[in-house]
Each structure stands twice: as C-alpha cells, then as structure tokens.
Amino acid sequence: MNSLDSTRPFYTAGQLPAASDTQVSPLGYEQQVCQASSHSDDCDIPSQPTASSASFAVRLLKGTAIHGHPVAPPSDSQCSSWLASLVYPLGRHLVVPAYFKRVEVIGRENLPRTGPVILAPTHRSRWDAVLIPYAAGQDVTGRHLRFMVSADEVRGLQGWFIRHLGGFPIDTSRPAIASLRHGVELLQNRESLVIFPEGNIFRETQVQRLKPGLARLALQAEASQPKLGIQVVPIRLYYSKPLAPWRCRVKIFIGQPLYVAAYDLKAPKQSAQLLTADLKQALEAL
C-alpha cells in the first residue's frame, strides 16, 4: 500500500497525483485495472424498461410511471429517528453478520463526534451504503448520517426509505443547484454528510480519479460561515472478493480528517484541485 509523503503533509500548488499502480489489498485480493472501469450498478439494468420486462412492483420500487418515465424526486431530505432506530440495529446485528464472514473497522478514533463532517469513502459495492453506517453510524458516533445519492436511486418505495434515512438525490452528470445548496445547508447545520468522491462503483482495488464536486461543496460551505470547521474524513473499503459475494470479508480503514479551512478560500478553483489531490493521497495511504 502507498503511504503519505513524509516530507510534506499534502500536495503543493500545481502538483497533482499520478496514476496509481495495481495494488494488493490487505485481504490478499489483487486486481488489475479492468477495461470497463466504472459501474453504476451491480448488474446491467435497462434504463427504460418496457411493460413486458418490468412488473408493477419493480416500477413502484424504482419510481417509474406506467409508461416507464422517471418520477423526479425533490432535493430535500430528512432523517427519521424511529426508522433509523429500527433499520440500523437490524443491519448491524442481523444483516451484516449474516452476509459477511468478518467485517473489521480500523481507525474509528478518527471520526469527529461534533462539527460538520464529510465522510469520503471509496465505492466498491452497493454494500458500501450498509457498511458505512456500520463503521461510522449513529450507534458509533451518536450522529445521523446524511447521504448524497444518485438521483436514480431515490425513487419510489426504495426512494422513500433512502430519503427517510437521510439520503438526498443529486444528478451526478448535471448537479442541480438545489441539491448542492441542500448539501451546503447540512454542513452549515453541523451534520455528518457521506459523499462517494469516486462517483460510481469501481471493482478495482486502487483509488480511482476523484470527482471535484466534494471539494467544491466543502469549500463553498466553509466560506459561507466564519470558523465553520468542516472536516473531510477519508475511508477506504476492501472486499476479499470482487462483487462482494456471500461470506466474503471486509476491512474498513478510516483515516485522519483533512481540515477544509486550511485551504485558501479566496481561490476556490485552485483550492478544490489541491483538496481533491490531498484526499486522493490520503485514501491511497490507507
């Protein structure tokens, strides 16, 4: 695994990380870069299913109308305490132990208990959305997690559960101002926000190129209030086998936070590049 450059804490101006090599995970799983580098789902699903290929129940879950047109979700969100008190213990004590052979979390002491936080995990499986609360959820830190989720996921009955568990949608190809504003408002309210900086699901072990949106959102929120104190926490997930099959093992590494206020808020474009580069370096060091 890589380690942080001991001669300086982060990248200096104008220096961006080079492409990382093939790595071997702590679980012994070595994987080469695939030709198809990104996946938005664990399987290929037609974006507009016809009446002959999708049942009414599937349409209800996915939030599509009778003729297959998507129902646009609103950009706000809420976190239902009663629903979270049911779902999260069920996941921690039943679902995760039943599915995975072992889940090991390293670095929980790096999780801030107060103040605005962005958790920035790598994205290797749909199980990530279950394992991040397992590693850093309310029963660990005493804080609800708010998730920035792809708009395709927040529809129908599935979308109702996601939204009431703190998720809110964003169009990753063309982010709406309302979604970005909601993310800023959550940080202004000292919430704990989860953003997958790689964007899509990747099966490769090595850290992929990070999207600039996380850094831009963090810098915008930090500049909106004096001494807001946003921290960005790098989190790296390793699965012992690709596709996260039943009884595989998982290691979750939580790194030391990056302080957004340490970057020049008067030069947001350059600071976003530096913060993105520093976050990638921190993830690669885990």
Helix content: 25-40%
Number of helices: 8
Cα-atom radius of gyration: 19 Å
What is the structural class? Answer: alpha/beta
The fraction of residues assigned to DSSP E strands is: 5-15%
Instruction: Quote the distance from N terminus to C terminus.
Output: 7 Å
Q: Please identify, by name, the CATH architecture.
A: 3-Layer(aba) Sandwich
Q: The biggest beta sheet, please?
A: 8 strands, mixed
CATH topology: Glycerol-3-phosphate (1)-acyltransferase
CATH superfamily: Glycerol-3-phosphate (1)-acyltransferase
**Domain module count:** 1
E-strand count: 8
What is the approximate shape? globular
Order of helical and strand elements: HHEEHHEHEHEHEEEH
Mean pLDDT rating: 79
CATH class, anyone? Alpha Beta
Structure description:
By secondary structure, this protein is α/β, with parallel strands linked by helices. The protein has one domain: 3-Layer(aba) Sandwich (Glycerol-3-phosphate (1)-acyltransferase), CATH 3.40.1130.10. 31% of the residues lie in helices and 14% in strands. The chain is built from eight helices and eight strands. It has helices spanning 56-62, 81-99, 128-136, 138-141, 156-164, 177-188, 213-224, 268-284, and strands spanning 102-106, 117-121, 145-150, 167-170, 192-194, 231-239, 249-254, 258-259. Strands 1, 2, 3, 4, 5, 6, 7 and 8 form an eight-stranded mixed sheet that branches. Helix 5 (156-164) links the parallel strand 3 and strand 4. Helix 1 (56-62) runs parallel beside helix 5 (156-164). The longest helix has 19 residues, at 81-99. The radius of gyration is 19 Å and the shape is globular. It starts with 55 loop residues before the first helix and ends with a helix. The model is unreliable at 5-23 and 29-74 (pLDDT under 50).
